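fyi for ur records
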Amino acid sequence: MNRQKIIQALSCLGKFMNQFQFPDSPRDNTDLNDLFYDEFQTTITSAKIYNGWFEERSVRRSIFALSKWLKEDTLSTWSFEYKWNPVPKKIAIIMAGNIPLVGFHDYVCGLISGNHMLIKLSKEDKLFLPLMTKVLIHLDSSFEERVEFTEGVLKDFDAVIATGSDNSARYFDHYFSSYPHLIRKNRNSVAVLTGDESKEDLAALGDDIFAYFGLGCRNVSKVYVPDGYRFELFFEALFDYKYVVDNKKYANNFDYHRALYLMGGHDMLENGFLLLKEDTAVSSPISMLHYETYNNLEVLKKDLISKSESIQCIVSSIDFPNSFNLGQAQSPGVNDYADGVDTLAFLSDL
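which gave:
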């Protein structure tokens, strides 16, 4: 195989995935539909049986978001400056399962760098990547020797990419210390508000907060607001996201944390599906959003820099390093790397 063949196959896969944004999205005229369309639809609608967080809405959103950069020109431009590995290395990839297809970018980086992959899927997200690999193998049988899935002990590999919690990251660091490795820890995202946001701006922020029920590293778990900020418009703008509480797992988190903090006598605000608590921590429990006030933007910028190891991205109308506009946190480009570490460079330079 060569990079161009891989990019062409991935772009075909992307066109196929693009059909699944909504249940009634029109079908494209692609030969892949005859073999895989019904299987994809069934897997999307049944995913919640295996993982209660994987609502059909979330799965379709993830598949469509990935398809937007699985295009030949996008992949070619992105990978142009990176080396192709003529002698493939075997890359062990331990994937997380917090949101659907969260490890897909690592998967694409492994292919485009010219390497082979030994993948250990999370039990929380084990359906979609093997199915997509099946599509690629149909397009080119050479993919069969480039992608291997395992449920056993990882062995006979040259480098490691592992994603997990802060606790598992400490284990990964120790266990894989003798290999080239890229270990990712828990991260969250934050928003910085000025107080001048419109209702539409705040509704867009709601997507950054509630997409995937707040389980992703790009989900906003904390907002910084100016001193004296009033949350009435904020809560009003988020009303359309009340559907999150229809998910049993989310509702259980909401009820538990609400009862816990009420019994503890903690001050907090709530609207029936989101708890808002003043707290200096970046990470917040599911169904809760932390907030903190500021009165000096320069001081806040320094504070955010000091917390950069735990922040994936910042959403704001103010220009910050690695920042996105409100509502754009869940729309990363192909070169928006997890933890800010260039995965393709790591794999290309082995």
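The CA atoms of residues 51 and 164 lie 17 Å apart. thats all i got for now
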